[in-house]
User: Which sequence fits this backbone?
């Protein structure tokens, strides 16, 4: 197992180096001159030049790159110009917000999609199969920002059930002391149940938005793979041997149908991180998605590079976890690995 | 903080007397709310110090409220009864008294003024801060130079509580320039302690925290998320503000900001689409204040250095072809002052901005095109800044439609916000729309930046005219020496010339719109168009 993890991590190194080079070049190729942008509306040419010098943008590209790589090696992601903070600190503060939201969205989605998919597969053509089809189609065809805005409009503006979409906590609560960065966990550690409730109620709408969006692939994949497995010979044998339908479906069929679902989950998780960008905008969520977009709009190189790099590292880790999970679910994969 | 502690202390109680808890909590909520101002806006500060590198406009608001200046403006009653800063009347802020002489101005400081850390504000802090403003480079230094404040030698310490500012030359903008946001007084000892050889002015330190003597201090700042400011209980430069705490949250979605206001969760917001402001004004649930930008105009500019717009006839044709009223109705929803269609016989005033006499008249425009020998038409591009797409995009579409009627085919070029200034600086765009507004509200200030042949970045048309330069320079000198007759003649002269040569066509004077709950009072209009919390009250 450890050799496999080590090997996988080794393979990740060239791709990370590639990511560093590509993001560096891409951000430099962006239109827009950060010096002119940050010199302000009333700047003269000299003022722009002064800023350019301060930012080190007057140096040749290759020198800029080596300085950047050197800083990275020392764990320094540079400073964001729009927010004025070190990028590493910002990402550290903001990543838990995004991760908490994405994970909760994914959990809600899985909790609905997998039973729905299994039920739809066991009763193809029934009303539950149609329900599955309709919900997934509707979920995937509504853009996240739209679902988000509709939810805010209905549950906050019209009904008043949901708290104001003002980020992770009600304005008059203070954040719990950081342990994990996940407010749901940290408030419980701090035994601050008021804040826990506030954090949870703030999470419900954005997590639901993400869940609605990600229902489709999970439910469809569960259904398809369950159908395939249910039609296979070992299931027929199990049924013929007189095992109860629940044993057949849960123990035999479901475990075998899990592999493609896990693969889909990893994919869904990664595109949820992308969809997050819009959801964070709608709900004023202080995550890394909105951070990266704002940086991009103002040609702020450092956060964009930091964001892409963080994402790359997360994908590498995610893929690793998925591979390990394969091994747990299906011993055959372990042998090959 | 206090609320949290309070809640913790009652959490034991909560177990014993569950039914009572919701009441306790909501009354605590109510107390916190009544002394707290909750502001929601799209963007937040990127730097708490206006002297910093690339401090953005929301950062100005923090500086304005957390730092003091030597002097500030008096208030007068503006349009619609809203308090409006008085351009011509100054009052002391950190200075309890000041005296303007022929070639200098002397300030006597409040003896009991203290910085947030308790250190007294003295003349050496004033000198250090003004030295810093003229030395750090970039925007602050540029702004200081607009009032002929360029050299540290101009700032002289007389004694611990007296400072003199010497004039380089007679310039009527020098004193007003000491009342803008930039010449704020910084805690020099504290900042020096936290500076380094690489950063002699301690910009890295003041970027993250406020080191001033102002009425508020930043207690928490999460960039891109929120700023929390608490009242400075020891502030002596004015009456103690009524708002104890300001929470400023960034809410990127305009629709959500409106929902927050209408549900009564947020107290105040600006930066909403004009349509929203207009609807909110109509339904009357909130107070909406709309006031014209002082010294600001949205215009259509034309590059006069190359064909086709080097020909004044073509420029006049464009001026007759623009759909002014449609833009006012469909883009601005009436929230702007028209800058077009003045009566034919209306004499030019000694004022700026003032409307020009062009109106939408397609026949006249066609005739002018024919006169210029271009009745066959021409093709060009019209550019705008995507950062303000909400206004710029529909505006350009209307202009495109209208120009097509006189044979000018335009392609719309959307320039990303980050790139806009670079493009302006290049001065290559043939046709574009933009806004300019000056902090200092004087016609010659506007014209100096926008029409003078020294070709500043705001002379986006690359307009050069010896006559124009003579008039602008004449007005500046006349203003400095108090020669009213020459001043009036020169101002009228350059306005007339700008409207006959018409290198840029004013469309309207935009409004700054602020929506707030009915129980919020004390909003004041300032030249910087940001909020001054010191005068505001709730309930």
Assistant:
């Amino acid at each position: 197992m450890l050799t496999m993890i080590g090997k996988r991590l080794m393979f990740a190194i060239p791709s990370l180096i590639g990511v560093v080079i590509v993001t560096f070049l891409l951000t430099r190729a962006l239109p827009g001159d950060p010096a002119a942008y940050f010199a302000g509306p009333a700047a003269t040419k000299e003022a722009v030049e002064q800023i350019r010098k301060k930012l080190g943008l007057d140096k040749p590209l290759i020198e800029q790159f080596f300085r950047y790589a050197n800083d990275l090696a020392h764990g320094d992601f540079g400073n964001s110009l729009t927010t004025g903070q070190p990028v590493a600190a910002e990402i550290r503060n903001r990543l838990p917000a995004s991760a908490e939201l994405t994970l909760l969205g994914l959990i809600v989605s899985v909790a609905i999609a997998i039973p729905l998919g299994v039920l739809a597969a066991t009763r193809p053509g029934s009303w539950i199969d149609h329900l599955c089809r309709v919900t997934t189609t509707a979920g995937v065809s509504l853009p996240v920002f739209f679902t988000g805005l509709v939810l805010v409009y209905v549950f906050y503006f019209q009904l008043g059930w949901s708290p104001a979409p003002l980020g992770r906590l009600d304005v008059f609560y203070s954040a719990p002391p950081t342990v994990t960065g996940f407010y749901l966990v940290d408030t419980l550690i701090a035994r601050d149940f008021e804040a826990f409730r506030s954090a949870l109620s703030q999470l419900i709408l954005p997590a639901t938005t993400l869940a609605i969006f990600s229902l489709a692939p999970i439910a469809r994949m569960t259904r398809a793979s369950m159908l395939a497995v249910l039609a296979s010979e070992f299931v027929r044998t199990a049924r013929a041997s007189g095992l109860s339908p629940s044993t057949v479906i849960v123990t035999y069929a479901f475990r075998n149908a899990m592999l493609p679902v896990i693969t889909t989950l990893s994919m869904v998780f990664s595109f949820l991180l992308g969809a997050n960008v819009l959801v964070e905008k709608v709900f004023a969520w202080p995550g890394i998605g909105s951070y990266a977009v704002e940086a991009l709009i103002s040609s702020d190189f450092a956060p964009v590079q930091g964001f892409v790099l963080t994402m790359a590292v997360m994908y590498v880790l995610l893929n690793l976890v998925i591979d390990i999970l394969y091994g747990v679910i299906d011993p055959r994969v372990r042998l090959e690995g | 903080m206090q609320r949290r502690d309070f809640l913790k202390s009652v959490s034991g109680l909560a177990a014993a007397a569950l039914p009572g808890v919701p009441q306790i909590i909501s009354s605590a909520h109510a107390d916190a709310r009544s002394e707290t101002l909750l502001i929601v806006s799209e963007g937040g500060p990127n730097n708490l110090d206006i002297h910093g590198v690339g401090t953005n406009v929301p950062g100005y608001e923090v500086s304005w409220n957390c730092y003091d200046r030597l002097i500030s403006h008096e208030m007068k009653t503006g349009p619609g009864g809203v308090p409006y800063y008085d351009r011509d009347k100054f009052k002391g802020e950190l200075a309890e008294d000041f005296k303007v002489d022929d070639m200098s101005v002397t300030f006597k400081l409040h003896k009991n003024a203290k910085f947030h850390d308790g250190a007294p504000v003295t003349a050496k802090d004033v000198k250090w801060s003004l030295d810093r403003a003229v030395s750090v480079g970039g925007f602050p230094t540029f702004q200081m130079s607009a009032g002929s404040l360029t050299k540290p030698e101009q700032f002289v310490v007389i004694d611990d509580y007296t400072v003199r500012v010497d004039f380089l030359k007679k310039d009527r903008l020098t004193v007003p320039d000491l009342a803008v946001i930039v010449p704020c007084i910084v805690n020099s000892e504290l900042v020096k302690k936290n500076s380094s050889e690489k950063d002699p002015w301690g910009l890295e330190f003041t970027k993250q925290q406020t080191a001033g003597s102002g009425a508020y201090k930043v207690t928490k700042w999460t960039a891109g998320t929120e700023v929390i400011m608490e009242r400075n209980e020891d502030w002596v430069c004015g009456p103690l503000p009524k708002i104890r705490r300001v929470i400023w949250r960034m809410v990127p979605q305009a629709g959500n900001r409106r929902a927050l206001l209408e549900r009564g969760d947020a107290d105040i917001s600006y930066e909403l689409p004009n349509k929203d402001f207009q609807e909110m004004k109509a339904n009357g649930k909130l107070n909406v204040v709309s006031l014209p930008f002082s010294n600001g105009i949205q215009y259509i500019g034309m590059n006069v250095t190359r064909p086709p717009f080097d020909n004044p006839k073509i420029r006049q044709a464009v001026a007759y072809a623009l759909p002014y009223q449609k833009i006012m109705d469909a883009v601005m929803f009436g929230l702007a002052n028209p800058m077009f269609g003045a009566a034919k016989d209306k004499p030019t005033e000694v004022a700026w901005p003032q409307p020009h006499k062009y109106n939408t008249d397609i026949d006249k425009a066609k005739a002018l095109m024919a006169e210029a020998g271009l009745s066959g038409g021409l093709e060009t591009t019209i550019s705008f800044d995507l950062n303000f797409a909400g206004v710029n995009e529909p505006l350009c579409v209307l202009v495109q439609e209208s120009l097509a009627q006189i044979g000018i085919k335009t392609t719309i070029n959307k320039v990303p916000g980050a790139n806009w200034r670079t493009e302006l600086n290049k001065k290559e765009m043939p046709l574009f729309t933009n806004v300019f507004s000056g902090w200092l509200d004087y016609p010659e200030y506007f014209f100096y930046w926008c029409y003078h042949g020294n070709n500043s970045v705001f002379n986006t048309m690359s307009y050069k005219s010896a006559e124009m330069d003579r008039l602008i320079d004449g007005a500046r000198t006349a203003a400095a020496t108090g020669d009213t007759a020459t001043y009036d003649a020169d101002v009228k002269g350059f306005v007339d010339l700008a409207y006959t040569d018409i290198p840029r066509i004013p469309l309207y004077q935009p409004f700054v719109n602020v929506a707030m709950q009915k129980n919020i009072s004390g909003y004041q209009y300032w030249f910087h168009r940001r909020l001054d919390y010191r005068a505001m009250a709730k309930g």
Summary: Chain B has three domains: 12-64+193-292+512-538, 86-192, 296-510.
